[in-house]
Amino acid sequence: MSFLGTDQIRQHTTNVYISIYLATNQTQTIYHNSMNKCFTASVFVVLFLLNSFRLSAEVHLPKLVGDNMIIQRDTRVNIFGTALRVERVTVVFMNRIYAALPDENSEWVISLPPLPAGGPYEMEIFGKNTLKIRNIMIGDVWLASGQSNMEWKLEDKVTNHQIEIANANYPDIRFVDVKNTISAQAETDFESEGWRACSPKTAGKFSAAAYFFARDVFKTYNVPVGIIQAEWSGTPAEAWVSTTTLKQFPEFKDAAEKLDKCTVNLTELSTAYTTRLEAWKKTVPKIDRGYTGKRPWYEKKIKDEETWKPMKLPCYWETAGLGGYDGVTWFRKEIEIPRSEAGNTLTLCLGKIDNEDITWFNGEKIGETKEANQVRKYTIPGKLVKAGRNVIVVRVNDTHGNGGIWGNSADLKILSPYYSVSLAGEWKYKTAVDVSRMPKYPTELRDQNSPGVLFNGMIEPVIPYTIKGVIWYQGESNATRAYQYRNLFPALIRDWRAAWKQKDDFAFLFVQLANYKAAAPQPGESDWAELREAQTFALNEPNTGMVVSIDIGDANDIHPRNKLDVGKRLFLAARKVAYKDSTVVNAFGPLYKSMTIENNKIHILFDNASGGLKSKNGTLKGFAIAGYDKKFYWANARIDSNTVVVWSEMVPKPTAVRYAWADNPEGCNLYNAEGLPASPFRTDQWQGLTFNAK
């Protein structure tokens, strides 16, 4: 709702005719600027009479509108709240008066004209009550969203975090945190501590990537910066998309429609879902071959062990031959216990498991955990520990997304005070429930991973607030469905822009997945590589920018501690995409453009390489090449101006090249002249691991 004109205010004040100055895009006023005192007196009289005629309402403000807030510069800005219907709300800001009437939902909004960066200012809002908002700054507002790598706080042992926090004295950088909330309906507000100015006392709780980004914006452009943090660890993209958009996807349509029709409150819905989920879980053991045979698979000796297949752990099983499989898988491993440990109590460490496990040692159950991705540690009673052959059996039930025994190799072991043996490496596995026989997993609202619930709970209440753009770090939770992400992620970008009604002016910057997990000794398939490829599809949307982080990850930690470079690269992208900074020649790393085949070599041409290409730390690495048989071999590669030439004696007639195509590709050292890393890519379109995963 736009502000009211002078004639409208006269009409709604029961024939009280007092001329007042209202904000417009014009510079005309009814008083000369030197008559501010007279103007202030007029404002006071108008507000006094408005209250006298009891036309005002009890005003309530959302968490975004409060002390220390940053409002977006150089564009129209919404200030909003709630009040009783058909009763006036009056706002005074920077010597201008605005008025609004709440709508049928008791919501009101006034629109401020474009204002330059500056502050601090105060705002007064009048109804039956009077509210004063202090220390307002006008600058740039960014929404920081995604999953845990965006959520990762500065104090969470980020590189040099103690020094960074101690020096974080930037009172004109402000953060507001949207508390984690799921909702079946579109919310109008969220739980929060409100806007907090950046200082050594507060900075530790800020998103590290967003903090480094905001600091560079502030230092470079000398404008106040506001960051709205709305992120949740481990969440998939579909949770952040509106039901309107989700209905365009057959795999999400049912869940979106059910969410729209939901009329019960969230607690009741979650309780009902839990009941259905427990019923589902009870049906699975009845069709689990590990239980239904003559001899259960948890026994020390079983008849058909030779039919079990090998799998190297730890890993997600989707990356080791079970792509797209959700269900029950049993794992077995034999170990030799020395005589010195026979009869001693041992500790079994299994790392992280997704989702649930039941674990046996020599046929006896020693532990069970239902929480996903928790490190498992079980006590093995001394009476079960025998000298010589011992057998560990783990039954893993994965309900959705990634599955398996994963995490760090160092966490997979058996130990006692004087004994330790690694369990990382080859295990035997066998699936126990065919996907076709699995009862349908409940798709109703269950948690923060459900389609649409985070858009309703954490994005919807932010939408009225005018922002400069979005920085986004997410994708890990969609890696097993990378082909789906090709369409889902661009749909999310369009969805948010439509919701904000900012169309293509809405800058959207995102971080490509970093390197993670064990390095592959030979070229192969990778769902994380497919997800990185899917992220590049979003670059077809206008005003987007992708930050490559393939060189700053951590093989042993999904949360790399180097968030400084992430923030710097996001800011460099912002300079190009959002700020249209003409001093920035190139803000992105080399991006695959095309290839040509000449004899036994393939020539790769790149975008974002106008200044040439370079190799860091010696000869180019990370390239693989294949012929029509689709078998890839490590390849030789050399730079030729802004192209790379790739070949191998093993492939005399090459057809395809891949670069950094792995979960954790080693030695990726192709950069452009600006020192930005090349994005992983492939030239082929051969069907990948996640092609059919939904």
Automatic annotation (TrEMBL):
Residues 466-560 form the Sialate O-acetylesterase domain. Transmembrane segments: none annotated. The keyword rRNA processing does not apply. The keyword Transferase does not apply. Keywords: Hydrolase. It comes from the Bacteria. PANTHER family: SIALATE O-ACETYLESTERASE (PTHR22901). This is Sialate O-acetylesterase.
